[in-house]
Amino acid sequence: MRSPSQWSGLLFAGSLLIRMAVAVTGFYLVSHGDWRKLVACLAGFLIARIAVTQLIRIPADKSARIIQEGGQ
Questions:
Q1: Cβ proximity of 37 and 30 under 8 Å
Q2: Residue among 23, 30, 31, 28 nearest 48 (CA)
Q3: DSSP codes, 15-29
Q4: pLDDT of 16-52, one tens digit each?
C-alpha cells in the first residue's frame, strides 16, 4: 500500500483538472457559447483572482515570523 505522500502528485493533478473543468463549464454556461462573453468571463475571473490574492496576502514580516516559529 502506498503512503499518502506518494499520492500527492496525482491528487494535485486530479484536483487541478476538476477545478479547471468546473470553471470552464461555468464560463461556457454563463456565456451561452458566445466567444466575446467567454473572454469577458475569463477576464473577470482573472481580475477577481488577483484582487482576492492581494487582499489575503500575508505581510512579509508576519510570514517570516511564522516560518521562524515553526508554522504556528
A1: yes
A2: 23
A3: HHHHHHHHHHHHHHH
A4: 999 999 998 998 898 888 989 989 998 999 999 999 9
Residue 19: closest CA among 63, 49, 61, 62: 49
3 state SS of 57: coil
Residues 6+ apart with CB under 8 A from 20: none
**CA atoms of 58 and 72, how far apart (whole Å):** 14
Spatial distance between the Cα atoms of 64 and 66, rounded to a whole number of angstroms:
5
Alpha helix positions (H), 32-59: 35-56
CB-based contacts of 21, cutoff 8 Å, min separation 6 = none
